[in-house]
Structures are given as C-alpha cells and as structure tokens.
C-alpha cells in the first residue's frame, strides 16, 4: 500500500493525521474558501449612489 504524503511538502503522513506536522498544511482537511464580499460591497455602493442621485434629482425638480 502506498504511503500518503503531504500535498505541499511531501512529508509522510499517518492515517490519523489531518494536518502535516512538518509544514502545517491541510493533508486531508479542505478549508472553506473565504466569502466573496467585494462584489457584494461594490453592488451595494453602486445601488446607494444611484438611489441618492435619483433622490437629489427629485428634490431639485420639486424645488423648481
């Protein structure tokens, strides 16, 4: 049976290891990707700017 090795540094792993003892990389555990906040924040900023522009335009038109 081939022995398992760390995907990052190639150190040998025991069956019960989830993390490499040499480099600390996840051996069998897969880390979740960080949330992608940047597109959401950009969308909210654009929506807010457009809403404020419409509000200002409406107030200018009402004020004459």
Task: Supply database-style keywords.
single chain, 64 residues, mainly alpha, 1 helix, 42% helix, rod-shaped
Could you outline the blueprint of secondary structure elements for this entry?
Elements: H1 37-63
CA-CA gap between termini: 84 Å
Strand and helix order: H
Helix content: 40-55%
Enumerate how many helices there are, as a single number: 1
The percent range for strand residues is under 5%
Biggest sheet: strands, sense, closure? Answer: none
List low-confidence stretches.
none
Overall average pLDDT: 89
Looking at the structure, what is the overall shape?
Answer: rod-shaped
Count every beta strand, where a strand is a DSSP E run of 2 or more residues.
0
Structural class, from helix and strand content? mainly alpha
- Rg measurement, Å: 26 Å
What report would you give on this structure?
The protein has 64 residues and is mainly α. Helix content is 42%, strand content 0%. It starts with 36 loop residues before the first helix and ends with a helix.
Q: TL;DR of this structure?
A:
This protein has 64 residues and is mainly α. 42% of the residues lie in helices and 0% in strands.
């Amino acid at each position: 049976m081939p022995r398992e090795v760390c995907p990052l540094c190639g150190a040998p792993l025991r069956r019960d290891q989830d993390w490499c003892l040499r480099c600390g990389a996840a051996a069998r555990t897969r880390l979740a990707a960080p949330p992608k906040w940047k597109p959401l924040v950009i969308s909210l900023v654009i929506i807010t700017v457009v809403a404020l522009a419409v509000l200002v335009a409406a107030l200018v038109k009402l004020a004459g």
